[in-house]
Design brief:
Length: about 120
Protein backbone atom coordinates (compact mmCIF):
# COMPACT_ATOMS: atom_id res chain seq x y z
CA UNK A 1 0.00 0.00 0.00
CA UNK A 2 1.12 3.58 -0.61
CA UNK A 3 2.31 5.50 2.46
CA UNK A 4 0.54 8.69 3.61
CA UNK A 5 3.16 10.87 1.91
CA UNK A 6 4.04 9.76 -1.60
CA UNK A 7 7.82 10.09 -1.97
CA UNK A 8 8.79 11.83 -5.21
CA UNK A 9 12.25 12.31 -6.66
CA UNK A 10 13.41 14.76 -9.35
CA UNK A 11 12.96 13.23 -12.78
CA UNK A 12 15.85 12.76 -15.19
CA UNK A 13 13.37 12.14 -18.01
CA UNK A 14 11.75 15.53 -17.43
CA UNK A 15 15.15 17.19 -17.66
CA UNK A 16 15.95 15.40 -20.91
CA UNK A 17 12.54 16.28 -22.37
CA UNK A 18 13.04 19.95 -21.49
CA UNK A 19 16.51 19.96 -23.02
CA UNK A 20 15.15 18.40 -26.22
CA UNK A 21 12.36 20.99 -26.44
CA UNK A 22 14.82 23.84 -25.91
CA UNK A 23 17.15 22.43 -28.57
CA UNK A 24 14.19 22.28 -30.96
CA UNK A 25 13.59 25.96 -30.25
CA UNK A 26 17.08 26.76 -31.53
CA UNK A 27 16.47 25.06 -34.88
CA UNK A 28 14.20 27.75 -36.41
CA UNK A 29 16.43 30.44 -34.90
CA UNK A 30 19.38 29.12 -36.89
CA UNK A 31 17.67 30.10 -40.14
CA UNK A 32 16.84 33.60 -38.95
CA UNK A 33 20.02 34.57 -37.11
CA UNK A 34 22.95 35.15 -39.43
CA UNK A 35 25.34 37.43 -37.60
CA UNK A 36 27.49 36.44 -34.65
CA UNK A 37 26.28 39.37 -32.56
CA UNK A 38 22.69 38.08 -32.87
CA UNK A 39 23.74 34.69 -31.49
CA UNK A 40 25.56 36.49 -28.67
CA UNK A 41 22.21 37.92 -27.60
CA UNK A 42 20.06 34.83 -28.16
CA UNK A 43 22.24 32.12 -26.60
CA UNK A 44 22.58 33.64 -23.09
CA UNK A 45 18.82 34.27 -22.96
CA UNK A 46 18.18 30.72 -24.18
CA UNK A 47 20.60 29.25 -21.63
CA UNK A 48 19.03 31.28 -18.79
CA UNK A 49 15.53 30.14 -19.76
CA UNK A 50 16.69 26.51 -19.90
CA UNK A 51 18.37 26.83 -16.51
CA UNK A 52 15.22 28.33 -14.93
CA UNK A 53 13.03 25.62 -16.46
CA UNK A 54 15.30 22.87 -15.14
CA UNK A 55 15.22 24.45 -11.67
CA UNK A 56 11.42 24.48 -11.69
CA UNK A 57 11.27 20.90 -13.00
CA UNK A 58 13.60 19.74 -10.21
CA UNK A 59 11.23 21.03 -7.52
CA UNK A 60 9.42 18.13 -5.94
CA UNK A 61 5.71 18.68 -5.39
CA UNK A 62 4.52 16.88 -2.24
CA UNK A 63 1.63 14.50 -2.75
CA UNK A 64 -0.22 12.77 0.07
CA UNK A 65 -2.83 10.08 0.48
CA UNK A 66 -5.80 10.75 2.76
CA UNK A 67 -8.56 8.17 3.05
CA UNK A 68 -8.07 6.68 -0.43
CA UNK A 69 -7.69 10.07 -2.17
CA UNK A 70 -4.53 11.66 -3.54
CA UNK A 71 -4.02 15.31 -2.57
CA UNK A 72 -1.66 18.02 -3.77
CA UNK A 73 -1.87 20.65 -1.06
CA UNK A 74 -5.58 20.84 -0.33
CA UNK A 75 -6.80 19.84 -3.78
CA UNK A 76 -7.84 16.22 -4.43
CA UNK A 77 -6.91 14.47 -7.65
CA UNK A 78 -9.62 14.27 -10.28
CA UNK A 79 -9.06 10.77 -11.60
CA UNK A 80 -11.55 11.02 -14.47
CA UNK A 81 -9.64 14.04 -15.92
CA UNK A 82 -6.19 12.50 -15.42
CA UNK A 83 -4.48 10.54 -18.18
CA UNK A 84 -1.95 7.73 -18.52
CA UNK A 85 0.65 8.54 -21.17
CA UNK A 86 3.67 6.45 -22.25
CA UNK A 87 6.12 6.72 -19.36
CA UNK A 88 4.20 9.41 -17.50
CA UNK A 89 0.99 10.24 -15.68
CA UNK A 90 -0.84 13.51 -16.21
CA UNK A 91 -2.65 14.20 -12.93
CA UNK A 92 -5.34 16.90 -12.74
CA UNK A 93 -6.37 18.37 -9.40
CA UNK A 94 -9.55 20.12 -8.23
CA UNK A 95 -7.91 23.54 -7.97
CA UNK A 96 -7.23 23.52 -11.72
CA UNK A 97 -3.55 22.62 -11.46
CA UNK A 98 -1.98 19.63 -13.13
CA UNK A 99 1.18 17.60 -12.61
CA UNK A 100 3.16 15.62 -15.16
CA UNK A 101 4.55 12.71 -13.16
CA UNK A 102 7.28 10.73 -14.93
CA UNK A 103 7.74 7.03 -14.21
CA UNK A 104 11.24 7.55 -12.76
CA UNK A 105 9.94 9.88 -10.04
CA UNK A 106 8.17 7.21 -7.98
CA UNK A 107 8.55 3.52 -7.27
CA UNK A 108 7.22 1.09 -9.88
CA UNK A 109 4.44 -0.29 -7.66
CA UNK A 110 3.22 3.24 -6.86
CA UNK A 111 3.30 4.17 -10.55
CA UNK A 112 1.28 1.09 -11.49
CA UNK A 113 -1.24 1.75 -8.71
CA UNK A 114 -1.79 5.34 -9.84
CA UNK A 115 -2.06 4.27 -13.50
CA UNK A 116 -4.60 1.59 -12.59
CA UNK A 117 -6.59 4.12 -10.56
CA UNK A 118 -6.70 6.54 -13.51
CA UNK A 119 -7.64 3.79 -15.97
CA UNK A 120 -10.45 2.45 -13.83
CA UNK A 121 -11.92 5.86 -12.95
CA UNK A 122 -15.46 6.35 -14.09
CA UNK A 123 -15.76 8.94 -16.88
CA UNK A 124 -17.45 12.17 -15.89
CA UNK A 125 -21.05 12.53 -17.15
Amino acid sequence: MIPAALPLAPSRRAGRALLLLYLLLLWPAAGVLSALWQWAIVLPVWAFALWQSLKVAARVTPLRWQSDELYRGEAPCQWHHSRVLPGMLWLHFADGSSLLLFCDQIADEHYRLLARRITLAAPSP
